[in-house]
Amino acid sequence: MWNDFECERFIFEERQAIIVYPKCPKNGKMLLKTEYLDAFPGFDTAMLERGYCLIHISHQSRWAPDAETDIMAKFVAFCAKKLGLSSKCVVEGLSCGGLQAAKLAELYPETVSVLYLDAPVLNILSMFGLGECKCEGLEKFQREIIATYGVSSSTIVNFRKSPIDNMKPLIENNIPVIMLYGNADTTVIYEENGKVLENYYLENGGTIKVISRSMCPHHPHGLDDPSVIIDFIEENICRG
Questions:
Q1: What does DSSP assign to residue 5?
Q2: pTM of the predicted model, to two decimals?
Q3: In which residue ranges of the chain is pLDDT below 70?
Q4: I want to staple 35 with a disulfide (CB 3.0 to 4.6 A). Which of 97, 112, 118, 174 is the partner?
Q5: What span, in angstroms and rounded, lies between the C-alpha atoms of 73 and 47?
């Protein structure tokens, strides 16, 4: 069981995977939660109650190297075939999960119908400390990014594989985005991450809705009442 919903756990490409099933009849659609499956599940359970199947696969790195994105795309295709559901899914990304979600949309837009991003990491240079991020976990972020991408403190300035470096595929494939952020977030600095995506969408005619949570730090994610997120998704899901 997962939060009182039936689930199936298995191994996919040597990674832990899970499918969570709604109690009501399936509505033909999937929700992919890219990272932190058990964190802030209110939105996820609300989607399950509407007939979505929830899917998740673990990652060897939370910093979205291409190899992990490739496997995630294969997992989406596998679940769609196994369950007889749409090959496009709603993709939810919290924090580093937002990095994974945006990379999936960039490299495999055919798998994504709508993006729900929540305090998303979209700029790896920012998380390395080349901006205003001065949080307690910064040194850990740096070690993980170095291990994932083989960069160093000297070469990271040349890194150009963040989602903000290639947002064009999201616009070209009409992928709608709903994005939340806390205006007191000192971990994932909105102006260096989500704001770049927001500006790009507004400048290029993309469909985007942005919600600022007043006086909110990086946590908690989500909203006490997720209906505004769900309404946006269900109004825009056919555009993806």
A1: B
A2: 0.96
A3: 238-240
A4: 97
A5: 21
